[in-house]
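Internal ticket - ligand job 477, flavin-adenine dinucleotide:
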Amino acid sequence: MRIPADTGAELPRQLRERLSAILGARGVVEGDCSRYHESWGGSFTAPGGFVVRPGSTAEVAGTLAACAEARVAVVPQGGNTGLAGGAQPTRRGAVIVSLERMRALRAIDPVNDTITVEAGMTLAELQARAAEVDRLFPLSLASEGSCQIGGNLSTNAGGTQCLRYGNARAMALGLEVVLPDGQVWDGLRGLRKDATGYDLKQLFIGAEGTLGIITAAVLRLLPRPRDAATAFAAVPDPEAALRLLDHARRHLGESLTAFELMRHECLAWALVALGGTSPFAACHPWYVLIEATGQSAPGTLALPMEESMAAAIAEGIVSDATLAASETQRRRLWAMREGQAEAQKAAGPGIKHDVSVPVSAVPDFLARADAALAAAFPMIRPFAFGHLGDGNIHYNPLGPAGSTPAEVARLRPQVNRIVHDIVVDLGGSISAEHGLGQLRTHEIQRYKAPVERAMMAALKATFDPKGLMNPGKIVPD
Ligand SMILES: Cc1cc2nc3c(=O)[nH]c(=O)nc-3n(C[C@H](O)[C@H](O)[C@H](O)COP(=O)(O)OP(=O)(O)OC[C@H]3O[C@@H](n4cnc5c(N)ncnc54)[C@H](O)[C@@H]3O)c2cc1C
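stdout (structure tokens):
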């Protein structure tokens, strides 16, 4: 759907004039706003939205104060790579606040192992800034060239190294936030210990912009690994993958950094989408990408990884395994995992689920969901990959071969119900790392207890009594 360029017409004239005065010409987007209105991949399109690009915390504060007075909704937007439609308004007449101009490095302290950055810095730039002082910022996502740290914190992003370093929440020490009425909270403390009452920053992490706008953050830095060993293993089923996880933990200990599971179909479609050949001569039902990293001299981890794989083959856990012998080979193995978005596009329309269950329940989840879908929709094609080490599976079955997006969309409500009921029955979550956005806010109401929904609504009402911050996300309006 094309969006009319003159979206400002949706706003009261006085507010438009006030925003122009606060933000100046660079801060107001004139003309084509489609790149802000459409989400990554075009899954969500806003019905309009006046786009502003503040250049400072004071300008964000002025924008929010003006919108609050005019009772106009505000939707924060980072790199717009979110997969739940959180950064798109659901109704006309909203102001989209893009953080893309707020990308400054405010401070870096290698002794305190902290970096203070503005919310609009991309994740890739943040990683590069940390590397300049020989430190690691360990959050790593396939979207890191575009997504912003403010968006990562607001979705509590996970990623491929979560197994070792935790998700975005684990990396945040302090935040600066603009509240819905325009007040600024300076919580930029680089402290590991602070026992002075409620840990307010935690409320804004994972809040998807519904309680305020994160404008800056103090983040933890870690020692930069000097050594990495990467293996790609073929396993007969998810049970074997789980045994391999336990085996790898015992052999590789703390150095185990990534443990990624994928079905044979995911590898096959990645090869179609990206080119290249399979690491194995034969086909296997499931694969695991394993990586260990550490401070040892380069090449040191190769031996324990090799011994670990040899032992797993000898014990009958692994059918075959290959080890990356160079950085180029390592990148090739990772491309098959990181190319899963392209693989899915090549495979055809599907129905995405970003779910988590206790790690021990992953095989049970996959078996139950596969069986239930096969019984209800025999032509549906399995497609599943994810972070097995975190119990987070991207369970994305594909529509019958040759089906159109509209045909697959008609199956979505029933498929979601089947998959999510099983997830919740196993004690899991229907959104592990993508958030609720407009995709799952209504669906989650079925799965959260009334007391949990009431606590969330009370928090929302406290911070945003006028209901203007990203309305309709997390707490239904
Ligand atoms: C190819 C690909 C791979 C991906 N892989 C992963 C993965 O491995 N793990 C994972 O967790 N996610 C993944 N994602 C999803 C996405 O990249 C993450 O959710 C990311 O954290 C979103 O950041 P963003 O800056 O693009 O935020 P946006 O998409 O712009 O916004 C996401 C939400 O955060 C809010 N928001 C954004 N910035 C702010 C701010 N400064 N203050 C307050 N609210 C704000 C928005 O309103 C919205 O609700 C992937 C996406 C793609 C396209």
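Auto-summary: Residues 405-425 form the longest helix (21 residues). Residues 1-6 have pLDDT under 50 and may be disordered.
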